[in-house]
Amino acid sequence: MALPQSLRTSVTPLELELIASEHLIEIVPLITMEKTAFISGAYGPLRPPAKCRIPLWMATNLKLKKKCHIVPPEWLSVDFLQEQLTRETSRPEFSRLPFRFAEIAKVILDVASDDVQNADKIKSLLKDLREARQAKSRDGLQKLDHSELSLPNLCSMEINEIRPFFIQSMGILTQLVREPSAE
């Protein structure tokens, strides 16, 4: 069964989180587990207190069962996010962030905020960063040209947010360019 047109224009934030859950992150296991094969690959072995890289979905599952501590990525820190926010507000271009930073940060902060130093400050910085980047996106879309749109360093969630507007706008611009001028 095909989806209605209104549902085909973008992916939901939950679907983006599901896609991001394949991202590998570090954990400190609290249990011992041999290397285990899954459809997406083999992970492990888990040997406390040695760090291990596993997919976010697996880390989330283990964390909810209190069988690991999640090691936040380097970019999920007050210093890094503050620096990115400063760049975002002082430069015209988008700062470079991991492609799925919003989804990964949300999952980690929802499930393992106790493993993240200054989680409340990080949430606040992520919100400020998101707002600054949204403002730049809106400015970029106001300068929309039918032949080119250049918004480098956009992240998956940001692309997903502007996709419906962009598709509609490009359709209208294409029609306007194709219509012969009335003379």
Automatic annotation (TrEMBL):
One of its GO terms (biological process) is double-strand break repair via break-induced replication. Transmembrane segments: none annotated. Residues 75-175 form the GINS subunit domain. It comes from the Eukaryota. One of its GO terms (cellular component) is GINS complex. InterPro entries: GINS_A, GINS_bundle-like_dom_sf, GINS_Psf2, PSF2_N. Residues 12-71 form the DNA replication complex GINS protein PSF2 N-terminal domain. It is found in: Nucleus. Keywords: Chromosome partition, DNA replication, Nucleus. Gene3D superfamilies: 1.20.58.1020, 3.40.5.50. Belongs to the GINS2/PSF2 family. Component of the GINS complex. This is DNA replication complex GINS protein PSF2. It comes from Suillus luteus UH-Slu-Lm8-n1.
